Amino acid sequence: MSHHVLDDLHEVLPGLGERLAMDSKAMESFANRGSHETTPDGRPDTDADWGKNADCGVDAHGTAWEKVMAWFGYKIHLRVETTYELPVAWTITQASTADITEAPNLSGQLQSQHPLARQAAVFDGRSGLRCDFVGAKLMG
User: Fold this and answer.
1) Is 42 left (phi over 0), alpha (psi -120 to 50) or beta?
2) 3-state SS class at 50
């Protein structure tokens, strides 16, 4: 989002920027994967790569579950203002780029161009953490 638009919105939306969150979404590439095979259009996607996302939890019966999604393409990393559900910063990377690696870039992007990042009272980034990392932290 253009930062002059954020300035305008900040004047009319009370509390804008107090609650920030970070998440990412897979963006699958349907182009050729850069193989050596010749195709009619001959345009492989040489910038994309493979990404994997694991989600885990425990069901009502106490059984642990894990869902793994893999894709070829890119990932959009988003910093959003959660009260008004507005994106305030984003980057697009190769699919394999970890959310935790991209978090400082999003913070830097927002801090360098807008004061929203400095006034946030709540920041939620749980959804970008890997299951084994969360489990290790919870289990001590």
Assistant:
1) left
2) strand
Per DSSP, 131 falls in state H
Question: Alpha-carbon distance 80 to 36, whole Å?
Answer: 40
Q: Name beta bridge partners: 58.
A: 64
For the chain, the structural domain boundaries read 3-26+47-139
**pTM of full prediction above 0.85:** no
Do residues 20 and 117 touch, judged by C-beta distance below 8 A? yes
Q: How far apart are CA 115 and CA 130, in angstroms?
A: 29
pLDDT of 60-111, one tens digit each? 999 999 999 999 999 999 888 888 888 888 899 999 999 888 888 887 777 7
CA angle 108, 26, 44 (to 5 degrees): 105
Task: For residues 126 and 26, give the distance between their C-alpha atoms in angstroms, rounded to a whole number.
Answer: 17
CA distances from 124 to 19, 27, 55, 112 (A): 8, 22, 17, 20
- The answer to whether 93 and 50 have CB atoms below 8 angstroms apart is no
